[in-house]
Amino acid sequence: MAYSIIWNIKSVHIDYYGEIDNENIKSAHYEVNNDERFYDCSHLILDITKCNMDKVIVPELIEIVGLDLGSLIVRESFKIAMIAIDPDNIEKALDYINLFNKYSCKINVFNSIDDANSWLNS
User: Fold this and answer.
1) What is the value of pTM for the model shown?
2) Is residue 86 classed exposed, middle or buried when 0-12, 13-18 and 19+ CB atoms within 10 A define those classes?
3) What pLDDT shows up at residue 33?
4) Could you tell me how many helices (H) and strands (E) the chain has, helices first?
């Protein structure tokens, strides 16, 4: 497993580490979406600061986009924050965000957890 999931009162945090691929991302998202606690969450934090995403092919994550989009549509206040520092990971995060079209205002990438939390709680 190349990720850990941390549950808080109103949020869930997926922390990716090491080499990850599309299967790791799918596995983490399905694990979160299949947990009853997720439906009480107002935001999802995806931390990609400690991982290598060279094997991730963003256009092939359309099934995960569907899961995330469902959360953004069904829950009006739901937001997704991605945290990235490495330029390649930032680029992959932005590619992912671009798949959301008009809902991209509810998903964003930040370079720190503090910046992400500020946006999530605004």
Assistant:
1) 0.93
2) middle
3) 94
4) 4, 5
